Amino acid sequence: MEGSSKDNNLQKEKEECEKAAQETFNRILAAYRQVIDGISDNCFDEVNNIVAKETKKKLDRAGSAFKEHLFGLIKEKFTKIWRDREMNLSVAMLEMAKRNFVVKEKWRPTDKTADEQLRPHLGIVLTKQRDMLMKQIEEQNEQIAKLIPCVEESRRRFRARMQKKTNLAIEIENDTKRMEESQKRVESMIEKL
Q1: Tens digit of pLDDT for each residue in 90-126?
Q2: Do the beta carbons of residue 17 and residue 95 sit within 8 Å?
Q3: Tens digit of each residue's pLDDT (9 = 90 or more) over 6-27
Q4: Which pTM value belongs to this model?
Q5: What one-character-per-residue DSSP string does 74-90 give?
Q6: Which residues lie closer than 8 Å to 56 by C-beta, 6 or more apart?
Q7: Which spans of this chain does the record mark as coiled coil (predicted)?
């Protein structure tokens, strides 16, 4: 009986530690979501000023889609790293060790707390992800830089067409006035005859 009680306590403790690991996972994902949500629409203002009003709506949707896609990628990569490195098990073991040795002051050979010991590992993962995101941002900046000349050329052609349209409208108006004057002269000549 005593053995089954001990097994039940171990099972219960294991479940609590796994729950703590899952909470850690969720907190980290929430932190990523907060960082991504922190990307304001002001970041896209420079692009919005370059692009015409019709495409601004598309850019607003693209900004939201970009944020959602970016968070999806981060979540996918983080989940893969979490699983590949068996972080659930590591965090659960750390939680169990913290609970079992809470009375001892120096129970780790490193004399570090669980947070201090886990922080460098998370730092490496976060650094790699940051580098990946920076690379993606650079690639998108390159794409934007390639699109800017096309947009400027389209604007130049549009302005030229508008100027030509204005000039033709003025010419038509002048021709109409001349035709009216000519018609009046012809009518006056006919009356004189």
Answers
A1: 788 888 777 776 655 556 677 777 778 888 888 888 8
A2: yes
A3: 778 778 888 888 888 888 888 8
A4: 0.33
A5: HHHHHHHHHHHTTHHHH
A6: 48
A7: 165-192
